[in-house]
Every structure is written in C-alpha cells, then in structure tokens.
Amino acid sequence: MTAPESAHSSVSARVPGIEWGAIALMALLVVALLGSLAGLLVATYGGERASERRAHRLSLLEEQERLAVTLFRQTPRALSGIEPAFSAIRHARDASKAVLADLDAVYPVSAESTAYRALNKEWSGLVGALDLILSAEEPVLGLRESLESLVAFAEALESQALVLLAGAPGWEFEPGQTYAASNLRLLSARLRENLRHGLDSNRSLADSERYGEGAKLLTAIGDAVTGLSLGDRSLGIARVSTPSARALLERLGGLYRDASDVLKSIMSNTLVMVHVHETGETFAVSAKRIPVLSAELRQITGTSRKEKTWATEAVRTGFAAAAIVILLAAAATFFFWARARVHAERARAEEVQRRHRASSEASRRNQAAILNLLDEVGPIGDDPVAVEAGATEDLTGTIADALSHVIESLRETLVHINDISGEIGSGASKTQVTASALSTASQVQVQRMAQANDALHLMSSAVARIAQEASESSQAAAQSVEIASQGAKAVRDTISGMNTVRETLQQGAQRLKRLRESSREMGDIVRFIDDIADQTNVLALNAVIQASTAGDAGQGFVTVADEVQRLAERAGRAAKQIEMRLGTIRADADEAVASMEQATSDALAGVRTATGVGEALSEVESVSGRLNRRADVMTTLAREQSEQAGEIMEAVEAIRETTTEMGNGAEDAARSISELAERAQVLQRAAKGFPLPERDSPETAALLQHGARPGKAATTSDEPSSKAASLANLPREDDATPADAGS
Amino acid sequence: MAQRSAASPFAVLSDLETRALAASRELPKAHGLEEGATRYIGFRLGQTGLVASMHEVIEILPYPELTGVPGSAPWLRGISQIRGRLLSVVDLSGLSGRAPSPVLRTTRMLIVKNDVMLAGLVVDEVFGLKHHSSAPISSLSHDEPSWLPGVVNAEVEIDGTRWGVLSVAGLLSYPDFVSAAVQ
Question: I need a labelling partner for A689 at 20 to 30 A (CA). Which of A105, A180, A714, B10 fits?
C-alpha cells in the first residue's frame, strides 16, 4: 500500500502544475485552431479570386474570338465598298486593341504564354492589315461611287438608245441604222448588267477583268454612236440626218464620253484596289486562324483552372484537417486534465482516510474498483477501441460492462465508416473521371458546333448568291423574251409593209397594162386618121389635076385643092408623129410593167425571208421563255435552300447552347463529386485516427472479427473463460496501476 | 336715105357686091406661085425624089387590084381596070434596073398618058404639088446613069432640094417600055 500512497502524494503535489500546463496547452490549441480556421478562410477566398481571374481571361478570349469572326465577315463587305462595314471594322479593331491590352495584362509568363504569344502575333499582323484596309476606305468608297455613277450612265445610255430605237414620226431609219441603234441598246444593257454585278456585296471592287470587259463594251457603244452620227460606209450605216434624232445622238455621245472618263479613272485606281484586295485575302486567312488559336488557348486555360482548383482544394483540405486534428488534441488534453483531477481527488480522499484511519474495507474496494476501471479505461484518449474494460463483480462491474459495449459498438461503427468512406472515395473518383470526360467531350462538341455554324454561314451566303445569280439570269431571259417579241413584231410589220408594197405594185402594173391597151386603141384611131389624111391627100391631088385640066377657070379650085392637099399632108404627118409617140409610150409602159413585176417578186422573196426571220425570233422567244422559267425555278429552290440553311443554323446554335449548358453542368457535377471525394477522404482520415487493423488484408479482416468477438462475448457471456481471464486480470491490474501512475 | 332712094336698085346691088367682096376673105392664092410657073407632082422612087409635070399625070390612085399578065417582063406588075379603062401597071424602079418597089401603105399609082396609051406607074410615095417657075435645069448632073436614057434627063431645084424631072413622053416612047413581053 505504500507505493500507491507515495504515488498519491506525488500526484497531489503535481496537480496544480498539470492543471496550469493543461490550461496553457488548451489555450495554445485554441490559438492553433483559430489560426487554421483563418488559413482555411484565406485559402477559400484566394481560390475564389483566382477563379474570378480565369473567368475574366476566358471572357476576354471569347470577346476576341467574336471580334475575329466579325472582322472576317466584314472585311469582304468593306472591300466591296459598303460604307457601314468600314465603321464596323474600325470599331472591331479598336475593341480588339483594347482586348489585346487587357490580355497582355492578364497573361503573365506561364505555360499558357506560348499559345498566347502565337495568338498575339497573329492578332498584331491582323491589326496591321486592318490599318491598311481602313486607310483604303476613301479610295474604295470613291471607287464604288464611281462605279455606281457608271451604272447610272449605262442606264441612261440604254434608255436613250431605247428612245432612239422607238423613233418618232418623221424619223426614217435605214436597215443599217436600225441595226446599229438596236446594237447600241443591247451593248448598253450588257454594260449595265456587267457593272451592276460589280456592285454585289460579296465581290471585290478590284476586278480588273470586269473593267476591261466594260471598257470593250463602252468602246463598241462609242463606235455605234459615232457610226450613227457621222455615218460609216464600211459598216453600211448611213449618217442620221433627222434633227431630233441627231440631238438624241449628241446626248448619247455626251453620255458615252462622261462614262468613258469615269471608267478611265476607275481603271487607274484598280492597281491600288488590287493591293488592298490581296491584303484582304491574307487577312481573311489569318482571321480564320484566330478562332482556332483562341480555342486552343481557352482549352489550356480551362485545364490549368482545373489543376489550380485542385491545388486550392488541397490547401483548404489541409487546413480543415489541421483544425480537426487540433480539436482531437484538445479533446485528449481535456481528458488528461480530467484524469489528473480525478487522481488528485482520489489522493485527497486517501489522505482523509489516512487522517481518520476509519475507512471501511468495502468502500476502499469500491474505490479500488473505480480506480481499476479508470486505469483500464485510461488509454481511451489514446486508443479508445483498444480499451477493454473488465467486467468485475465490483461496484464498477456494470459500468465497465456498459463501457465495453459502447467501445465495441464504436469500433464496429468506425470499421463501417472506414469501409463506406473508402467505397465513397473510389466511387467518387470514378464518377469524377466520367464527369470530366463528359465535360471535355462537351467542350469539343461546342467547338465542332461553332465550326459547323461557320460552314453553314458560308453555305448560306453561297446559296444566297446562287439565288441572286438565278434571279439575274431570269431577268436577262425575260429581257431577251421582250427583245425577241419586239423583233418579231418588227418582222411582222415588215411583212405586212412588204405585202402592201406588193399589192400596190400589182395595182400599178394593172393600171399600166390598161394604159398600154388604151394607147394601142388610140394608135388604131390615129392610124385611121392617117388613112383618112392619106386619102384626102390623094383626093386633093386628083382634084388639082382635074381642075388644072379646066384651064384658067379651074385655077381657083386648083389653089383650094392644093391647100387641102397640104392640110391632108400635115394631118398625116401629125398622125404619124402621134403614132410614134404612142409606140414610145407603149414601150415605156411595157418596161414599167416588167420592172413592177420584178419588184413584186422581190417583195415576195423579202416576205419569205422575213417570215423565216420571224419564225427564228419566235423560236428565240420560246427558248428564252423556257430559260426564264428554269431560272425562276432555280431562284425559288435556292431561296428555299437558304431558308433551310437558316433553320439548320438556328438548330445548330440551339444545340451549341444546350451542349455548353451540359458541359457546365458536367463541370459542376465533377466539382461536387470531387468535393464529395475529399469529404470522404477527410472522414477516412478522421477514422484512421483510431488504430484499426488494416481493412484491406484478409488477416485484418480476421483480426477484426476476432477483435469483435471478445466484446460480444463479454456482453452475451458466451465464453466464461475470457470473462474469467478478464476477472483474473483485475487485481493484477489494480496492483499495476499505482506503478503506472508512479512512472 | 335720100341717096338710097335716089339710086337705082341695080346700083344698090352692085354697091352691096363691092362691099361684100371687099369684106370677104380672098380665095387662097398659091404660095410662091408666079406667072408662068410649072406645076409638078413630086414623088419618091426608092431613095430618089422625082417630079413629073402635072399635065402628063391624069390621076393618082392607091395601089390597085391587079391581074397578072403571063409571059410579061417582071417590071410589068399586071393589068388593072380603072373606071372602065384598062391600063398596064409598070414598076418604074424595076424597069430602070433597080430593086422592085415594095407595096406599102404609102405606095401609089400615077396614071399617065400620051396620045395613044394610058399607063400606071408604081411609085413609093407621092409628095404633092411642087411649083417651079424657071425652066428645068439643063441636063442631069453627072452620076445618074442607071436611069433610062431620055426618061430622066433634067433636074429642078425646089426649096433647096434637087428633083429629077421624069419625062412621061420619053418614058412612054421608050422602046423597052413598049415591048413588055419576055424576050
């Protein structure tokens, strides 16, 4: 009994020191806890700051990508001289400069910088090209303006040519002139169409080939105008002499001169335009590269974000684990402190016992049992599950039994926790892998969708161009139908005119024949008169002869008869002259009839030719009509296709949005799952604070079962031997306790 | 009135005649017809213009209906009956050794006579009366040898044209003319 007493006295002597030490330790622990909590806060806040910066970077990259797409779309429009495109490009350029500056600020030298440097270099080249394109704004707009004015000139030329062709009362065109005028009109129409194509929004203005063709057409127009106003014998065009037509021709000539001046200035500006156009093409190539580079950079940034999140999470977890450990340490300290207090109380009671020396054996045994129990339970702070409280018949037996139960169930629970948290950890890491794969896949899908959308944009614009071309060719076909029908009408007019001419000629020929007939009758009459004159002549002569035989008495009669004879002679001469004239008239009439018949047959041949021309023209008309209908069908189809492409684009956009949401959801899920896994790890680590046997090896499983059984046996009293062993241990334990306490 | 009553009716009538004659148009006078001028009838024989004295021509007629005389010379066209008198129709051109005269609208027959016979001469055309005041111009000039000797042996100049003068008497007394049978 001496040893415990000395131990008691030493305990009681040490109590204040232990208490102060414990209190100081606890204060230290509280400070450490506060520190670890502060660390946790800082880590969380810092993680949030970092993720905000990453989001900023990503949004900058997206902005830049959007700007690149805008520039890529606007540049061809600007090059074709559309004014709003220039202001859009200027705006996008300024915005992209700002974005570049921001990106420079947020991308320090890091693993991402290689990709960023490539992107930055591409952008710098792009901005240089943009400056060149923007510096060409004035010439490009001027060129477009000139081109528009040239189109206006071509339209004016066409309308004037139409007026000239339609003619007016008093104008009479020869066939060569009509040909030249209609040629003029066709050339003007072709020139107008040619130039109007140049004004399409998707075409560059630097199309020198088109201007060359336009110049050729314009030269042909000038030739036609000159031929009409001055006459061109080699082309069979006579000089137009009607004053009003000449005024029109002068107006046409003025238009032609103005148009050729404008075209010359355009062609001298084309060289500048070619340079700008090439820049625009290289620009388009690098602008296409931007989204790819940007997407790469974005992916890299997204990945690093994940790693960094992991790191932050690890720091946070470390702080949290430290806090838990400190808490546990605090608990242990508290336990020690409590035990020390109990020891002190016990020592004090023994001192009271020694002072009175009247303590009963039962109460001493009770005390000893309690002490024994406390000794047994003592290591609970270090290893709660390793403690086994012996079930004695003492006062404390029941307590020890209950404590044993509790410890047993605690051990089982811990084992379960360990198992379950391990399962949770492995399951969560699997799910996390799946979720990350899902997130990556959805990002890839979003990129693919963006590419598909761009391709669809291109396809849609191509289809729109097809539709435009088709509608233009439809217009051209309609024009040719109109022209052909005009030509057919002209041919019909010609045929009816020729028929009229033929009828008139036939009537004239008939009249001439009647005239010849009349002149023949007149000839007969004149011959009759001549005969009479002849007979009169002879009679008069005979009268002269007879009268002269009468001597002087017949002298007067001789004179009269002589006079009669002379008259008859003159009448005969006159009649002969008349007859001669009539013969001339008849010959002339015959010739006239012959030439009229020739003219009639010529007119018939002309009618036949014109009929052939008319048939050919109506053939042209029907073919053009068919062309027109085909082109209309094409236009309709292309429009439908364009609408469908738009619907597809909308659908793709919707899919992209959904996929982005899905990716975000997957990312969130991955994050939540990783948090869950960490929690599980934390739990596992906490459970590992208790020295359980390793659960992976079969030995430990057996040990676990074995370890579990004694507790169970203790409660159900299945195995008395073990209970006896524990009971047998009790006094020895009791003996050992003071020694332990003393050491 | 006193004068009229005083005058005898004969004086009145003669006065009336005198005044009427004075007021009347004179009968046409032959142009260029002088006293003692000879009247000719001009005609054409081929290309040659000839005249014959009007006294020797009885009548001018169109080409008549003829009755051929067998066995006669070619220049004797035939025999015709004019107002109950027979006459032989002679182709003067053929007689003088030229181409026979064709029968045309202008062809005429001159009826000539001498004391013993009547004859019809076929000429190509009759021009009418020709007046010549002076005597016929001597002999025929130089180259007209083909005409029958003694038939055309003088020329006259009328209005600047020379005409050969056909002597009807000479013709009718020409030996060949009388013997028309084929020899």
Answer: A714
Radius of gyration over alpha carbons of chain B, in Å?
Answer: 23
Please tell me if residue B70 touches chain A, with a CB cutoff of 8 Å.
Answer: no
Structure tokens at A155: 């339209």
Report the 10 Å Cβ neighbour count for A472: 16
**Structure token pair of residue A671:** 């994050």
Q: Do the Cβ atoms of B128 and A558 come within 8 Å?
A: no
**According to CATH, what is the number of the domain A57-325?**
1.20.58.920
Give the Cα separation of A390 and A404 in Å (integer): 8
Given an 8 Å threshold on Cβ–Cβ distance, is B39 in contact with A537?
A: no
- Asked if A565 and B129 come within 8 Å (Cβ–Cβ), the reply is yes
CB-based contact B126 A569, cutoff 8 Å: no
In angstroms, the separation between the Cα of residue A549 and the nearest Cα of chain B is 8
Q: How far is B61 from chain A (nearest CA, A)?
A: 7
Give the per-residue pLDDT at B136: 61
The residue of chain A with its CA nearest to that of B128 is A541
Which residue in A534, A548, A560 is closest to B39 by CB distance? A548
Place of tokens 């002549």: A537
Contact B126 A537 (CB under 8 A): yes
B29 touches chain A (CB under 8 A): yes
Q: Which helix (H) or strand (E) holds B158?
A: strand B152-158
pLDDT score recorded for residue B142: 53
SS3 per-residue string spanning A5-29:
HHHHHHHHHHHHHHHHHHHHHHHHH
CB contact under 8 A, A569 and B128: yes
φ and ψ at residue A126, rounded to 5 degrees: -60, -45
Query: Per-residue confidence of chain B (183 residues) as pLDDT tens digits?
Result: 445 556 789 999 999 999 988 887 765 555 545 556 788 889 998 888 899 988 888 899 989 999 998 888 888 999 999 888 889 999 988 888 888 889 988 899 999 987 788 899 999 988 888 887 766 665 555 555 556 777 887 888 887 788 888 888 888 888 888 777 666
Q: Which of A526, A535, A538 to mutate to test the interface with B (most CBs of B within 10 A)?
A: A538
Q: Which of A533, A562, A565, A536 is nearest to B27 (CA)?
A: A562
A596-602 long-range contacts (CB < 8 A, ≥24 apart) are: A596/A505, A596/A506, A596/A508, A596/A509, A596/A512, A597/A509, A599/A501, A599/A505, A600/A502, A600/A505, A600/A506, A600/A509
Give the DSSP per-residue string, A86-121: HHHHHHHHHHHHHHHHHHHHH--SSTTHHHHHHHHH
The answer to whether A538 contacts B41, with C-beta atoms less than 8 Å apart, is: no
10-residue mean pLDDT profile of chain A (743 residues): values are: 43 56 80 83 74 77 79 77 81 82 69 71 78 79 82 83 74 75 82 77 65 82 81 75 80 84 80 75 75 75 61 75 84 84 86 73 74 73 61 69 82 83 82 83 86 87 86 87 88 89 90 90 92 90 87 83 88 91 90 90 88 88 88 88 87 88 85 84 77 51 45 42 44 43 40
Which residues of B fall within a CB distance of 8 Å from A571?
Answer: none
Residue pairs between chains A and B whose CB atoms are closer than 8 Å: 47
Quote the CA–CA distance of A333 and A329 in Å, as a whole number.
6
Q: Do residues A474 and A628 lie in contact, with contact meaning Cβ atoms separated by under 8 Å?
A: yes
CA distance A711 to A714: 5
Whether ipTM tops 0.90, in short, is no
Q: Which residues of A touch B59 (CB under 8 A)?
A: 542, 545
Q: From A709, A705, A710, select the one nearest A693 (Cα to Cα).
A: A705
Other CB atoms closer than 10 Å to residue A195's CB: what's the count? 26
Note whether B54 contacts A: Cβ–Cβ < 8 A.
yes
Q: Could you tell me the domains of chain B?
A: 38-178 (2.40.50.180)
Closest alpha carbon to A222 in A161, A152, A159, A144: A161
